[in-house]
What we know:
This protein has four helices and two strands; from the N terminus they run αββααα. The protein is globular, with a radius of gyration of 14 Å. The chain has one domain.
Amino acid sequence: MTASAARYGAPGDDHMKHPHLHLHAHERLVCPVCRVRALQYRPYDTWPPTTDLDSVSPPYRDTFGYPSYESCVRCGYAFGFTDDPGADVEPLTFAEYYEWWQSQGEPWPDDDDRERFLAHGGSPDPE
């Protein structure tokens, strides 16, 4: 298993084929922004990445395929929106969004998501 596969989820984890599945905290995938095991779906079709994320520019679908459009419950990064917002809005890389999120005090996007995430055994700490 590559370092990327170990960090972001095993190559065979294809949750996009089963969007009705509810993943418990220990089954979730690691968010590439906040490094918390918080994602229920692969962020993009080709995930985990086989390249260094810092060497890729948004929109990430050009490199990794179709996005999940899921938002991380911990940091709020919206895969397919934050990196490809359209119109005249500049896309944000994972690193740029992380820096912004940290500068805001690492807020939870939604208190209800926070409560559900923690109630299902999720840890707010990075892996």
